[in-house]
TrEMBL record:
CDD domains named in the record: HyaE (cd02965)
SUPFAM superfamilies, alphabetized: Thioredoxin-like
Biological classification of the source: Bacteria, Pseudomonadati, Pseudomonadota, Alphaproteobacteria, Hyphomicrobiales
Sequence intervals crossing the membrane: none
UniProt record similarity statement: Belongs to the HupG/HyaE family.
Protein name (record): Hydrogenase expression/formation protein
């Protein structure tokens, strides 16, 4: 992982770093496990102060959803390409993907209750249905 702050927490928690060459493999593995993939497009922590907070929250969210989420961090060098693919407009952003479908994005830092509510709506809704914020 190219950003040093927060690196220890993410690697200790076993979150892989992915790029354009490995993202589809990661998404396939999450799908095979019956989980929703959640990718963190963190951005530069020198520019986006919330980056470190998002890096700390992601493993906690994965734990809170008890195996329903599989997380990874997008490598800094791949953020532009993968950001375009998944519709990222600001950083940090959590990207939720299941069965090849982008379920939704949660940008910036949120209160814990907002994360839990929005994630539950994203992962529990029927595929193809929109989520009202």
């Amino acid at each position: 992982m190219e950003f040093q702050q927060g690196k220890h927490d993410l690697t200790r928690r076993g979150l892989p770093e992915i790029d354009a060459a490995s993202v589809d493999r990661f998404l396939g593995a999450a799908n095979e496990a019956g989980a929703v993939a959640v990718l963190l497009s963190a951005g530069d922590p020198a520019r986006f102060i919330e980056t470190i907070d998002a890096a700390v929250v992601l493993p906690e969210l994965i734990d809170a959803f008890q195996g329903r989420l599989r997380g990874a961090v997008i490598a800094r060098r791949a953020e532009s390409e993968l950001g375009q693919r998944f519709g990222v407009r600001v950083q940090p952003t959590l990207i939720f993907i299941a069965k090849g479908e982008t379920l939704g994005l949660i940008a910036k830092m949120q209160d814990w209750s907002v994360y839990v509510d929005r994630i539950a709506k994203l992962i529990d809704r029927p595929r193809g249905a929109s989520v009202l914020s």
